[in-house]
Amino acid sequence: MSTQPSDNAEPGTTPAAVSTDAGNENTPTVTGSEPDAAKHTEEEPKVVNPTEPQPTAPVDNEPKPAAAPAQDTDSPADVKDSVSTTAGELPPLVQLWKAAEGHPHFEIWGVPLSDPERHIPTQIIFQKFLNANDGQVEKAKDQLLKTLDWRQKTQPQQLLRKMFSKAKFDGLGYVTTYTAGDEPAVDEPEQKEVFTWNLYGSVKSLDETFGNLQEFVEWRVALMELGLMEINIGGAIKPITADYDPYKMTQVHDYKGISFLRQTDVAKAASKECIKVLGDNYPELLKEKFFLNIPAIMGFFYGLMKMFVSKKTLNKFHPMSSGTNLAKEFVNTKVDGLGDKLPAEYGGKGADLKTLGKAPIVQ
């Protein structure tokens, strides 16, 4: 299955090489020694043309929710004309819908699935699965069904209400949304930028934070679901195209305070599992990815990435030796003055992450 890379760089270790596979949609696999060959060559394959929290996924013993109501828009998506098909063959999005209709779990990313010909949010989700698989319907269908299986088993939206250990996860990750003007642009993707922040320098003990693999992965998934709530695909009224997909997030990994000589097996296992889980189940959600406070010598490893990924994919990864320069990277964005809105420690003039950001619940 050709999907986007996962959303997580290995915490507490040296970023070395990229394992590609999509939100996200997405990061180098960190080994601390030599780079692993990438399983795929494209993080975001060719695209085929075709905060209000959303409803949580039903638990296994609950009846399947009713399909989401059709959305009438001024310019409804014409699914049948959005892709080329051979004579007598159903359009790709319709094929994905027919496959999903037979599954007992009827939700992805907080969106109750419905007929993509009339429901823009479902169309966007299906299109992302197609985009992540070069438009190959069977591969997209396989990934979609496996994602539905995983969400039925894991119940990711229930993790938004789970209490995580404060000692292990407090301050480790945040989601922030920056909007144009003073109004919260909940339903207009062109008026906001969503960031997920992973602050691995906040880890007090690698073994304690990453030792319980399931707990760490659940925490990381909860952070991803928070980001999706801010993106708000469920409120979308515009279909995505080859040149238009604003339903993505910027990811920042800050390694300040981490010794790149520190490596543990549990941290590596946590990174590997997150890469797989996020890569398989959150395709086409990454806009840009920044690796901050990386020693200058680490530029050598990023040079090696050219051996494993396309230029298009590589251009999404931005290693930076100083986190204070991050604000300068957002000169031309859909949110005017975005750089100034970032926290001061990242070169902006805005509130710090603990004040402004959202995070999984800890106690």
UniProtKB/TrEMBL annotation:
GO terms for biological process: Golgi to plasma membrane protein transport; regulation of exocytosis. It catalyses: a 1,2-diacyl-sn-glycero-3-phospho-(1D-myo-inositol)(in) = a 1,2-diacyl-sn-glycero-3-phospho-(1D-myo-inositol)(out). Residues 246-354 form the CRAL-TRIO domain. Residues 21-32 have a biased composition (Polar residues). Its cofactor is heme b. The keyword Transferase does not apply. It is found in: Cytoplasm; Endoplasmic reticulum membrane; Microsome membrane. SUPFAM superfamilies: CRAL/TRIO domain, CRAL/TRIO N-terminal domain. The keyword Ribosomal protein does not apply. Residues 36-46 have a biased composition (Basic and acidic residues). InterPro entries: CRAL-TRIO_dom (IPR001251), CRAL-TRIO_dom_sf (IPR036865), CRAL/TRIO_N_dom (IPR011074), CRAL/TRIO_N_dom_sf (IPR036273), Sfh5 (IPR042938). Its main location: cytoplasm. GO terms for cellular component: cortical endoplasmic reticulum; cytosol; endoplasmic reticulum membrane; plasma membrane. It is a peripheral membrane protein. Residues 1-85 are annotated as: Disordered. Keywords: Cytoplasm, Endoplasmic reticulum, Heme, Iron, Lipid transport, Membrane, Metal-binding, Microsome, Transport. It holds the Pfam family CRAL_TRIO. GO terms for molecular function: metal ion binding; phosphatidylinositol transfer activity. Non-classical phosphatidylinositol (PtdIns) transfer protein (PITP), which exhibits PtdIns-binding/transfer activity in the absence of detectable PtdCho-binding/transfer activity. Regulates PtdIns(4,5)P2 homeostasis at the plasma membrane. Heme-binding protein that may play a role in organic oxidant-induced stress responses. Belongs to the SFH5 family. This is Phosphatidylinositol transfer protein SFH5.
